[in-house]
Model the fold of this input.
Amino acid sequence: MSRKKLTRRQFVAATAMSSAALITAPYVRGAYAAGKLSIGFWDHWVPGANKASTDLVNEWAAKEKVEVSIDYITSNNKKIELTAAAEAQAKSGHDILQMPSWWPQAYSENLEPLNDVMEPLIKQNGEVNGTVKYLGQSGGKWLAVPATPGSQIKGPCSRIDLMKKHAGIDVQEMYPAGSPPKADNWTMETFLKAAEACQKAGFAFGIGLGETTDSVDTAGAIFQSFGAELVNAKGDITVKTDSVRQAMEFYKKLIAVLPPDAPSWDDASNNKWLISGRGAMILNPPSAWAVAKRDAPQVAEQCWTHGFPAGPKGRFAPYLPYFWGVWSFGKNKEAAKSLLVHLSAPASIEKFVAVSGGYDLPAYANFTTLKTWAEEGPPKGTLYHYPNPYNHQTLSIAASPAPPKIAQQIYFQATLTKMALRFARGETMEQALAWAEGECEGFMRS
Amino acid sequence: MADVVVERGRVARAAGARKGTSLRNALGRKSTVAFFLTLPLILLIILLVLYPAFYSVYLATLNKAMTKFVGFGNFTFLFKRETFWMVVQQSCIFAITAVIFKALIGFIVAHFVHNIPAKGQRKWRGMLLVPWVIPPAMSTLAWLWLFDPSYSAFNYTLSFFGVGPIPWLGDTFWARFSVILVNVWYGAPFFMIMYLAALKSVPDQLYEAAAIDGANWWQRIWYVTLPMMRNIIAITTLFSLIVTFANFDIVRILTSGGPLDTTHLFATWAFQVGIQSNDIPLGACVSLFMVPILAVAAIFILRDVSKRGNEA
Done:
């Protein structure tokens, strides 16, 4: 029996070839040959919207031979935040987890950098807005990919009839479907006058003053339109400034014409206010309108979603993106990245927007004029201006541009609404500012 | 040599037999059986109570980024926060007021139920326990609808009498009133059932003797009922105080701590600071602050109970 001797050169060559083959072959074909992938998605409000995610994931899984499991996690009572906190502590859990706005920054140390996913996606889908960069990037590293499901703008949703009758404002004319806005006169001053007129007529604007996101987001956009920052981008406390004082004065006047129990409102209260027919305007994504279509069609057909009023320092609209993050301790990171590319493909984005009835907002510049928003109704075109198609307002998040880990605390402790409410309830301006300054000092802990 | 071997074997056998007997004796002992029967529960408590408790102590000693040990740094930081002291004060107001009302209502209702003839008593007992057996998260949601700003059934009813609308959850006084009211509604049946059991164990002869001595109803309560119920009142109060101090769901669902943080309790504020604001060490500190307060209360109440137990 002849015995062939393996030379050292042959051994090195064989090893190099087999390693190269293993590295370059992405997924070996065969049932579930590319392993397993566990995903935690946000449980969508809109009935049937989860199915779109499931279909898209299954389509990708069949192609890539990956065994997937999806958990839909409700955002009620902060279940997603609890899941993220538990998984980050345990260093175990889903491979991909959908996170609300602030959480990629909060868990930046535990997230896989996704520059190799985001850079091609931006080239393909267009630039992302400043808030997505602020929340999704840290030191040039993309922490997560902006998710279309759940991302939203909380602009005004007005009653066409009541605004015309009591405030003399034709919101359809100001924001015509299919054309650029004619909203030069839509300022904070006009907004306040309209709020006063509607309150007098018994249809107060439904703006919360509580501690949940809708209340805080509104306060954030109003403060920003006055240039008011509690902490600036460098991390310096800037509470006692003229711009903050101006914003506080404005808020005090606004609070006087809001419903008396607005300090106790949660994120469902404003929706109920509009649907019950008691308010002329709320600041919310079109979910309230979508429920009204089912429960109070006569209200829904009078609703028009449009842009935010402008303040002395610009026109800002509250924007709340969701993100898909990949844990650095995940077991199948390459498959996770491949799935995120698939979920961010143009066809997938269009599908998300269509099944959510226009509620979901893509973060990319090329997707602000999809036909869903032009066609949804009644009334037809009610959502046309929802995705900010003419970029006439800056999409922002409350407490920005403070460093995200400080801003997150200002946001969740509802410092903006609380300071405004303290001032409106009788504290002097200086007392309210001193309180807010003390709070911000506490948020500086590292 | 052979002797030695035999001897050794006998010694070894004897030792083995003794060992077997002692193991059998140990296993046969009631205390050992009891230990093994309670072992699953002990393991559960270690896993679900002791481990998280010690873990939260560990977390409370870390900095916000959880990268370094700061000792008592988080506690000293908390002591300087105005909101923290407000939460301490509110937790005390909430727990003490709610427990007093629960005990009072429980005591009165227990007397009413005790005086109902035995035939119909079971129905009443069942009905009165309903608030306590419904999961509080669910029943609090129903209360939230009753207090709701747009659809409040209370305000609707009050409007017929020309009263209101009352901002049930939007004003500090009414918000505190509402959360305490719901807690009392939920917790009073527990007191009622405990007091009812205690009432039933008071011997009738004592009341008969008191009646012969000419005691009126108040003297019967003061000199017979209350002394006989003292231990159960103390233990029920302690238990309820602990549970009420640590309450989370009612405040979280009704007010989320608002308006202006004036209904926050330790647990809800710990959640807001720890989970929502992502400062887990500080959140752990807030929740741990309940321990010394409750430990002091427990020591006083239990010491009193054991003293009276010894007297008996």
